[in-house]
Amino acid sequence: MILLKDVRWSYQESGTPAVDGLDLHVRRGETVVLCGPSGSGKSSALRLMNGLIPHFHDGKLDGEVRVVGEPVTELAQVGRVTGTVLQHPRRQFFTDAVDTELAFALENFGTPSQQIRDRVGEVVADFGLSELSGRLRELSGGQQQRVACAAAVTHEPPLVLLDEPTANLSPQGIADLTGILRHLKELGATLVIAEHRLHYLRTVADRIVVLHSGRAEREWTSAEFPGLTDEILRREGLRSLNAPERTGAPPISAHGPSVAPGENPAEGGVGVAGGKAAGGAADTPSAEGSGVALRGLRCVMRGRTILDIAEAHLPSGAITAVTGPNGVGKTTLARVLAGLQRHSGRVLLDGRPLHRSRRQRETAIVMQDVQRQLFTDSVRSELRLGAVPEQAERAATVLDELGLDGLGDRHPLALSGGQQQRLVVAAARLSGRRVVIFDEPSSGVDRRHLRSMTRTMREVAEGGAVVVLISHDADLLELAADRELRLRPAC
Amino acid sequence: MTSIDPRPGTSVLPARASVPQRPLARRTLDPRTAVVILLAASITIMAPGGVWFVPAALVVGLLLALSEGAYRRALGLPLAAGLAAAVTYLLPLAVRSPVVGLFAVMAGFTLRLVAVGGIAAHLINTISPPRLTAALRAARIPSVFTVSGAVMLRFVPTIVAEAQAVRDAMRLRGLGGVAAMLRHPVQSIEYFTVPLMASSLRAAEDLSASALLRGLGSQTRPTAMHPPRFGLADAVAGSVVMLLAAATVLWRSAR
Hints:
heterodimer; A: alpha/beta; Rossmann fold; 5-stranded antiparallel sheet; 18 helices; 20 strands; B: mainly alpha; flat
């Protein structure tokens, strides 16, 4: 089905090859998982298979690439035999409704109208999409990914390629996707999945191929999966093959319609309990008042209540995870805390009510797309921008601590994704913000970076800040969360 | 999260599933009709003496808003037009000053824009980019225009969303306010545009890669799931527009 023979590829803008002597043979009907540390060439390997390399990205290609027995000559040709699902489904949608999105490829490939209608009807029923009547952009992440998978296979390609499809999915979304993959496999599709999270693929994959520096270094068949210990995977920089067992962090003191029930300390009148922060400020009774308190917080958008929290306390000096299914209001809560979202009710910091404009000056957000928050032309000036004077001289130390030493003169947009993220964190630290919010910081991050990310958050918390972590990533939550605020739909 | 359980044995794959419905499409105008009405209204109203056709365009805009159930627009359109008309024609009678005269001229232009805007709003709200593209293809518009038009329509909301995110990020870094904008206008524009371009380019890359792989702009002549077809709604709309235009011409010659 796919043959890559001694393939070398360098992107035009980069000196080092992204793929360097890659040999890979994927047989018809097989499900192959490509994994490896960040930057090991997983996405580039997929791009070789769907022709985006070299027909969309510029660079230098050597070696032999054959897809369904043919060399890749143009994108539309390979597009007929492949379906591609990217990390962000929202970004790949071309229309704003389920049926038009499913019809898109068939229309472009010149399929007769009646056939398109029949096939779209089949896929809608097959993927359980009939109840998704709203606009695509208003669906939850899991629902969007389901539509993206359906849209990738409507033209019945024999080969489906998925690039980190779970990066933005909740555990429920991942369970749904696993079902879809199993179903595609049943239908006889060949699947190639580039992924960091491996646990959900344990029962789906026929083979796991580990890439390092752009070449296949190791390979395990499904018969060998049971023998793969966590230690072996850790050595390869890979995440666990077993579903992460979340012991769950103690819940914060909170109640209200948006707060998921559980062993809620507010109901029992208990305060914050001990977490992972070693001797963190939140563990001491005197720290009860410090941090962010929410009182009667309510957020209504277009007549729908998005968030309704009667009372909650997010302690300073600790990492509070905000969790819950896609679309439950986690990002809205982050925007409320940062003063970017109108709401009713009060938000207090260390016992003092804080107006929205004041909260904007006390909060930093590390966004999922960090490019949106890099404003200047060098790392050094990025750190100076908005830094409080007494912290400005610490710039060099902070850069060093975050592994950015020696990069002071580089343009922020020339850094890697991980470096950009750490730069934004450094800027937040130097600006002395009391509330620092991390919004899905681990999408597309390997095991090693997961730990460094946790270290960074821990350091920010130890500096006395209220650290809020919005994440679906069970691995990261298990490592980092001291407390948890679990949300549920408000109505 | 809604349930899907496509595991072996539980998936239902009907031999011939129901064809997706298009509840809005049947009741609304064919995109070609809507585009022709919009173009005709724009050209007529913006031409010298075009102000005579403003009432007719407003009636068309009002009827279109009612037909799609956009009652707020149906109410707002005559109100906005009435206000603009009052500033254009009544205010200069009450207050004689050059400043008021300037306002009156500006309000005159606003009045024309409101009249055309009512029709444009209907087009934007009821005709999705794929329907518009299919209709333009049926009207034999070359693909170089239909493809680039479709991409543009698709990308505008992305840029708006990215711009909002960048503006939020600026506010959190203390770069947002009006004061900062006035103190350092060039720098403020740079702070806004550089991240906007970086993040929009990234989004554009995913979108174009996905669209090209799904055959957008390929050599094959595209088809449409629902080929555009003229219906009763188009006949009614055409007749109403003709009647209003004729009435306007008669009214004008009578004066």
